[in-house]
């Protein structure tokens, strides 16, 4: 009987510690102590088209081909909209964000950001069909 009581007590203590640890988890964005990167500006190109950032941290011009339009749901041709990089659905710096969202008109298009790959001269995100990554390199 004592062994059963010890087992139940131990099991209860383990479950309680797991529950309490979950209450204090840190879902805050990653911070490596570095300053935020500059706002994106310029034209970034790939085999799918171009992304043009004007440097205000919000507006974007998107020019994509029909193939990528079918994969992503974005409108083919040229469109203007706004963009945001997100961590846990909150706006965050592009080099540490989980998601890259483009909003054109009433529609949102969200992609998995290339965490650690996206930077001032390169935008990397997952192709919506999940078969690889799209890389947009900044033009010189």
Write a structural description:
- The protein is α+β, with helices and mostly antiparallel strands.
- It has one domain.
- The protein is 21% helix and 39% strand.
- The chain has two helices and nine strands, in the order H-E-E-E-H-E-E-E-E-E-E.
- The chain has helices at residues 2-23, 66-72, and strands at 41-46, 49-54, 59-64, 77-87, 90-91, 99-104, 107-112, 122-126, 133-138.
- Strands 1, 2, 3, 4, 5, 6, 7, 8 and 9 form a nine-stranded antiparallel β-sheet that branches.
- The longest helix is centred in the N-terminal third of the chain and has 22 residues, at 2-23.
- It is elongated.
- Mean pLDDT is 85; it is low at 21-26.
Write the layout of secondary structure elements.
Layout: H1 2-23, E1 41-46, E2 49-54, E3 59-64, H2 66-72, E4 77-87, E5 90-91, E6 99-104, E7 107-112, E8 122-126, E9 133-138
Antiparallel strand pairs: 1-2, 1-9, 2-3, 3-4, 4-5, 4-6, 6-7, 8-9
Structural class: alpha+beta
Task: Kindly report the oligomeric state of this protein.
Answer: single chain
Query: What is the element string, with H for helices and E for strands?
Result: HEEEHEEEEEE
The N- and C-terminal alpha carbons lie at a distance of: 76 Å
- Unreliable sequence segments: 21-26
Instruction: Give the amount of beta strand, in percent.
Output: 35-45%
What helical percentage do the residues reach?
10-25%
Radius of gyration: 21 Å
Question: Biggest β-sheet: count, sense, barrel?
Answer: 9 strands, antiparallel
Mean pLDDT: 85
Number of domains: 1
Shape estimate: elongated
């Amino acid at each position: 009987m004592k062994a059963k009581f010890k087992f139940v007590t131990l099991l209860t203590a383990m479950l309680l510690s797991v529950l309490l640890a979950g209450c204090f988890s840190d879902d805050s964005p990653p911070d490596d102590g570095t300053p935020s990167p500059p706002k994106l500006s310029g034209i970034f190109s790939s085999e799918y088209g171009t992304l043009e950032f004007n440097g205000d941290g919000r507006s974007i011009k998107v020019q994509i081909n029909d193939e990528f339009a079918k994969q992503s749901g974005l409108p083919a041709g040229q469109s203007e909209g706004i963009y945001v990089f997100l961590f846990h659905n909150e706006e965050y710096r592009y080099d540490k964000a989980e998601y890259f969202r483009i909003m054109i008109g009433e529609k949102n298009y969200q992609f998995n950001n290339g965490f650690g790959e996206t930077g001032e001269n390169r935008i990397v995100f997952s192709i919506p069909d999940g078969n690889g990554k799209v890389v947009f390199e900044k033009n010189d």
